[in-house]
Automatic annotation (TrEMBL):
Its biological purpose: Involved in DNA repair and RecF pathway recombination.
The organism's place on the tree of life at top rank: Bacteria
Protein name: DNA repair protein RecO
Family: Belongs to the RecO family.
Database matches in SUPFAM superfamilies: ArfGap/RecO-like zinc finger, Nucleic acid-binding proteins
Keyword field contains DNA damage: yes
Name of the gene encoding the protein in the UniProt record: recO
One Pfam short name: RecO_N
All copies of domain DNA replication/recombination mediator RecO N-terminal, residue ranges: 4-75
Keywords: DNA damage, DNA recombination, DNA repair
Organism: Oceanisphaera ostreae
Length: 236
């Protein structure tokens, strides 16, 4: 059996001693696996099938749900805490909901691993997430041209204001409106120049709007956990 580089993106108990595990592999994309006996006290898999642990896994089966035969850590777990942890869980949800199963996305796998590493090393949370979101939108064919008016075909005017139309692009407005994008911000987004706070705000708003149709209206658990964590810290 061929070993595949992988990360666990989700798991849940299955029957008395097993788990259903969603893994994101470099060579075979997302896979749903049964990890038989992994919840037994003496299982060699116990403690391995956690998010952010770089793994080599082998599995087999003919259906949608395959059987995990082996998992081995290839490096220490990527250590995420606080906001970085919630951000890593958010990345896992994007992988789970946006990528179809059994389709290789080796470049996405590499970008995912690099983003986790950047988060663990103290990289700016917002720039890290925006870079990954923009990358995902482009790799899946959902990206837009930030430099061209989707209605007129003319170049974006840096001094004008624009409205984002999902799955289309940016349309010039006659005057500023709530939620509008300054043209100068769109040129910054095109180059992923995310050093300015106001541009980061525009980047986050665009990501939320652009990803929403493909997330199917789901309330992401990572966001709910982050909000709950912030409320808890305020009450302490």
């Amino acid at each position: 059996m061929t070993a595949h580089a992988a990360f666990v993106i989700h798991s849940r108990p299955y029957r008395e001693t097993s788990q259903l595990v969603e893994v994101f592999t470099r060579e075979q994309g997302r896979q749903s696996l049964i990890a038989k006996g992994s919840r037994r006290p003496r299982s060699m898999l116990k403690g391995l099938l956690q998010p952010f642990v770089p793994l080599d896994v082998t599995f087999a089966g003919k259906g949608e749900l395959k059987t995990l035969h082996r998992a081995e850590a290839t490096a220490p777990a990527i250590h995420l805490t606080g906001t970085a942890l919630y951000s890593g869980l958010y990345l896992n949800e994007l992988i789970f909901y946006l990528l179809e199963t059994h389709t290789p996305f080796d470049e996405v796998f590499d970008a995912y691993r690099q983003t986790l590493t950047s988060l663990a090393n103290g990289g700016g949370i917002e720039p890290c997430l925006r870079h990954f979101e923009f990358y995902m939108l482009n790799i899946l064919g959902y990206g837009v041209d930030f430099t061209v008016d989707a209605h007129s075909g003319l170049a974006i005017d840096p001094d004008a204001w624009y409205q984002y139309q999902p799955e289309s692009g940016f349309i010039q407005l006659a005057k500023p409106e709530p939620g509008a994008y300054p043209g100068e911000h769109l040129y910054a987004l095109a180059e992923l120049e995310l050093t300015r706070t106001d541009v980061l705000v525009s980047a986050k708003r665009f990501s939320r709007q652009a990803l929403a149709p493909y997330l199917g209206g789901r309330v992401l658990r990572s966001r709910a956990l982050f909000i709950k964590g912030k409320r808890g810290s305020r009450s302490e």
